[in-house]
Amino acid sequence: MKRIDDKIKEIEKKDKNSRVLYIIIVLLIAGFMAYALSSEKTKKEQGETIVGQEKTIEQQLVDLENKNIELKATITRLEKSQTPIGFWNQTDEAKNTSAYINYILHTGKPEAKDEYRAMALENIKLNETTGKTVWLFCGRKSGDKISSDRVMEVIYRKDETPSGDALPIVGDLVENNTSNRITYRNFSGGNVTGQNNDSDAWKRGSKAQVLDVETAGNAVFIQIKF
Length: 226
Known about the structure:
Elements: H1 2-81, H2 84-94, H3 97-105, H4 114-125, E1 133-142, E2 145-148, E3 152-156, E4 173-176, E5 184-188, E6 191-195, E7 207-216, E8 219-225
Antiparallel strand pairs: 1-2, 1-8, 3-4, 4-7, 5-6, 7-8
Helix pairs in contact: 1-2, 3-4
């Protein structure tokens, strides 16, 4: 009877060992599968990252090529602007009062041609440029000079070299040599009327072309575009 009990215990022990081994094998298989799935996921993510990087690099190459094209165009424009005709064409394309005035006053290289200066003056006069057209009191005259309350100086006159205190005439370029000046929309009855906003003030240091000149006694009023 004892021998039978020992045999049963031996069988139970073997069965227990088998179950432990089975569990270990199952755990190993599960661990391997988990590792395989994780590796596959990592591989997939790495693949997606590589694809994303390839797309990013391709876009960067496209961006670099576009910038290269833009840079070449800029260099070409700069090279052209360094010639007299290129300098004028660049100015004329802007259709801007300030650009025309800067051209007229330009000295040095590239050279500003007198014929183009005349065209620039005419374009401003004909209102073919962007800018502000206003009236303002510019001082009091004495002969052909402005001797008191002068708020500007003449800095350019076609075919002449006038003094800064010269009485302005149509076509002159003048510069505000005092402080910001209040401007007006109209000249009427010997005075300027219709005050503009502060944003339309003629700023100190600003340059403008004279479009019209009116006097009332010794008071001088000018219409300018800047």
